TrEMBL record, chains A, B:
InterPro entries (alphabetical): FAD/NAD-bd_sf (IPR036188), FAD/NAD-binding_dom (IPR023753), NADH-Q_oxidoreductase (IPR051169)
Domain of life: Bacteria
GO molecular function: NAD(P)H dehydrogenase (quinone) activity
Descriptive protein name: NAD(P)/FAD-dependent oxidoreductase
Positions of the FAD/NAD(P)-binding domain: 5-325
Organism: Peribacillus saganii
Cofactor(s) for this UniProt protein: FAD
Pfam families assigned to the protein according to its UniProt record, in alphabetical order: Pyr_redox_2 (PF07992)
Keyword Glycoprotein: no
Assigned keywords, A-Z: FAD, Flavoprotein, Oxidoreductase
UniProt keyword Flavoprotein present: yes
Length: 405, 405
C-alpha cells in the first residue's frame, strides 16, 4: 500500500499547529507530510499591530518555520498557493504543483472591505509582516516630511483607524504610546497629531463586556484617541476618508494615513477552488472537514464554526485556529491508520484579552474580568503560550515577551 | 554713547563661530549681540549625508544653540529671516523685525538646480536635519513597500545621486554601507538594489588629486555603486531621471529615490535684500564686508572668496566658514572699539578629507595624500575639531565621533 500524502497549506497558527502535532504523533514512514507556505517564516498575526505601530520590531513577531518542524517527517515548500483542483487532488502553486491524499487548508483570512470604494487602493491593512513594516514606514515618513514643507499640512499627522474591533483597538493602543516618541523623533508638536477611530457599529469592541469597553475607550481617549462610533466610512480617497453624517450628508476627514482594521473574510483560494463558502469561509463539519470533501480539512480564519449558544459564528482567533490544528492532527492520524472515528471540534475559550498598549489591557479570563496591569500581564502570558504550544520552551525563550511589568 | 547692536543671522559654522568668539572677546556691556536662527539647534552640515543615509541618527548631528552661547552676552531669537532692509539697518523676520548697527549674514547656502526641470519638485536635497530625516525615511519606505506589492517594481530600489562632488561621494559611501542593512531589515535581495551616481563633469570629485579620485571611485564601485560620469541630467520626473546620451538622444533611468547633491548657491535673502551677488554669493572685501555695505559682513556659503593661486573661488566649506567667523569676530571687536584697523581674511586650508563611509576615506592633509583607515580617522578628527572650536571639550565629549577604528 502506498504511503499517504498529507499536504498542509499555510504555516499560520492552525497550519503550524497541525504540522508540529502531526510530526510528534506519527512515525517517519507512516505518512508523507508536506507543509507549503509563502514565506520561510511564521509570523504572529496577533502581534502585527505592534510591528505596524513601530512598538515591536517585525523580526520579533516572526520565526523560521524550519526551527519548529522536524525535517525528517515534514517536508517544506516555500511557494504561494494559486488553486486547489479538488477533483484531481492537486494543489496548483505559483511555481509548481503538488498532489495530496489529505489536504489541510489553513491559508488564513483576507481583509474584508465590504465594497467600500478606495479602501483597497488607499488604505493600509495590518495583514502580514510586509504590510506591518510598510505601515510603520509610512507613518514615520509622514512625520519626517511634515517638517520639510514650508506650508505645513497638519493632515499628514492624522491617522485614521477604520474599525474599533479587536485589531483596531489594539493598534490604537500601540499608536497612542508610539506617537509621543514620534513627536520627539521628528520635532513635531503633539497637539498637531490626531488619532481617529471610525466604527460603523453602535459600540467599540462589539461582543465585549460593556464595562470593559467603556474602560478601553476612556483610557484610549485620555491618551488622545478620538472615537467616531456609529459612523460609517463611505469612501477612502488619496486625501483621507469620507464618512456618513446624519441621513444624507457626508463629511471629509483628511488624513495622511488610513489603516483599515475592520473585517476578515476567508482566503480567495477557497472560492477559486470551488469549495462551498460564505465570504470565503467554509462552514466546516464537526470533524473540521469541508462539506462534500472528505479529504479536505479547513481551519483557521477560512473556517466558520457556529457558537450554538448564541447561534452566531465564533470570531476567527489564533486560539481557535490552534485548537483546530490539534484536532486535525488527531483526525489525520486516525485517517492514515484507517481508524474511522474522527474527533469533533469544540472550542474551549479560555479567555480573551484586548491590549491597550504595552502597559494596559482589558479582558475576560476564565470568566473573570480584568483591566490594567493584570490584564496586560495575562495578554503576554497568552502571547507566550502560542509560542510554547507550537515551538516548545526554546521558542518561548527566543521570541517570548518577558517585560511583564 | 549708545551701545552698538550686533546682529548675527544664522547659527551654522560661520555664525556660531562669530557668536562664540565674540562672547569671549568682549565685556557684557560693550555691545548688544543678538543671534537669529530658524531652529533652536545648530547642525553639522558636513555630517548630514550620514543622517540622510541612516548611518548616524539625526540627533547626533545637532546640538542646542543655547548650550554654546553665553546668555549674558548673546541674545537668541528663533525665527526665519525674510529680508534685510539695508538702508534702514533693519532685518525683517517672519514674526518681527530687528534693527542693527553691525550685521553678520551667515545664512548658509541653498541647493542650486541649474534650471534642471523637475529637480525642485521630485528630487531630495541634503540640506538640513529635516530633509536628511526625510531622505532616510523615504528610502526606508521604498524598501518597506517593495515587498508588499504583488508586481515587484525594482526601480523602487534604485537610488540616483545627482553629482559626484564632495556631498554626493560622501553620501554614496554611507549608502553603500547602509544598503546591506536595509536589505536584511526588509527582506530585499541585494542584487535588486541599484546605486547610481550621475555626474555631468568629466570626472568625479573635480579638483581632487586624480589618484585619490580613482581610489574613491573603484572602492565605491566594489561596494556596488554605478558611476555615470560625463552624463548630464536633463530632467527629473516622478519616475526617475532623464539623462543625455550622445548628441541628441536621451535615456530614462527609473528610480524611486533621486537625491540632488550637485550644487550650492548663496542664500535667497541676499538677492532679496539687494546686496550685490553672483548666484546669491557675495564677493566680499578682504575684511569680509559686503561691497558698499560697511556695516554688513557676509560669511560662509553665501560669501565668495577667490583663490588667487588658481583665480577661482574657494569651494564653500565648513573650514572656511569657521575661519571667517573668527576674523569677523575680531573685526567686530575693532569696530565697536573704534579701532580702524580690520583684519584681512586669508583661508588656511589645512586639508580636505572626503569620507567613503564609516571605514574608508581619501584626503590631503597638510599636503600629504591619505587613503583608507588613516584618512577615515583624520576625517573624524576634523569632525571633532569643529565641535571643539565652537563648543569646547564638553561638546566634543557629548557629540564627538570616537569610533575611530
Amino acid at each position: 500500500m502506498k504511503t499517504k500524502k498529507i499536504v498542509i497549506l499555510g504555516a499560520g497558527y492552525g497550519g503550524l499547529m497541525t504540522a508540529t502535532r502531526l510530526q510528534k504523533a506519527i512515525g517517519v514512514n507512516e505518512a508523507e507530510i508536506v507543509l507549503v507556505n509563502k514565506n520561510d517564516y511564521h509570523y504572529e498575526t496577533t502581534w502585527l499591530h505592534e510591528a505596524s505601530a513601530g512598538t515591536l520590531h517585525h523580526d520579533r513577531v516572526r520565526y523560521d518555520i524550519r526551527s519548529v518542524i522536524d525535517s525528517h517527517k515534514v517536508g517544506f515548500i516555500q511557494d504561494s498557493v494559486v488553486e486547489v483542483k479538488t477533483s484531481e487532488k492537486l494543489v496548483i502553486l505559483e511555481n509548481g504543483e503538488i498532489s495530496y491524499d489529505y489536504l489541510v487548508i489553513a491559508l488564513g483570512g483576507e481583509s474584508e472591505t465590504f465594497g467600500i470604494q478606495g479602501l483597497k487602493e488607499y488604505a493600509f491593512s495590518i495583514s502580514n509582516v510586509n504590510s506591518a513594516r510598510q505601515i510603520r514606514g509610512h507613518i514615520e515618513y509622514q512625520f519626517a516630511t511634515y517638517q520639510t514643507e514650508v506650508e505645513k499640512k497638519d493632515e499628514r499627522l492624522t491617522i485614521v483607524v477604520g474599525g474599533a474591533g479587536f485589531t483596531g483597538i489594539e493598534f490604537l493602543g500601540e499608536l497612542a504610546n508610539r506617537i509621543p516618541e514620534l513627536c520627539k523623533e521628528y520635532d513635531v508638536d503633539f497637539q498637531k497629531v490626531r488619532l481617529i477611530c471610525v466604527e460603523a457599529a453602535p459600540t467599540a469592541l462589539p461582543g465585549f463586556d460593556p464595562e470593559l469597553v467603556s474602560y478601553a475607550v476612556s483610557h484610549l481617549e485620555k491618551k488622545g484617541v478620538e472615537f467616531k462610533i456609529g459612523t460609517a466610512i463611505k469612501e477612502c480617497t488619496p486625501d483621507g476618508i469620507i464618512v456618513a453624517k446624519g441621513e444624507n450628508e457626508t463629511e471629509e476627514i483628511k488624513a495622511g494615513t488610513v489603516v483599515w482594521a475592520a473585517g476578515v473574510r476567508g482566503n480567495a483560494v477557497i472560492e477559486k477552488s470551488g469549495i462551498e463558502a460564505m465570504r470565503g469561509r467554509v462552514k466546516v463539519q464537526p470533524d473540521l472537514r469541508a462539506p462534500g470533501h472528505d479529504d479536505i480539512f479547513v481551519i483557521g480564519d477560512s473556517s466558520l464554526v457556529i457558537n450554538e449558544e448564541i447561534n452566531r459564528p465564533y470570531p476567527p482567533t489564533a486560539q481557535i485556529a490552534m485548537q483546530q490544528g490539534e484536532i486535525v492532527a488527531k483526525n489525520l492520524v486516525s485517517l492514515i491508520r484507517n481508524n474511522p472515528h474522527l474527533e469533533t471540534f469544540k472550542p474551549d475559550i479560555k479567555g480573551t484579552v484586548c491590549s491597550l498598549g504595552e502597559d494596559d489591557a482589558i479582558g475576560v479570563v476564565y470568566g473573570k474580568k480584568l483591566v490594567g496591569t493584570k490584564a496586560s500581564i495575562m495578554k503576554k502570558v497568552i502571547d507566550n503560550r502560542a509560542l510554547l504550544m507550537i515551538g516548545g520552551p526554546s521558542l518561548v525563550l527566543k521570541k517570548g515577551k518577558f517585560k511583564l511589568l
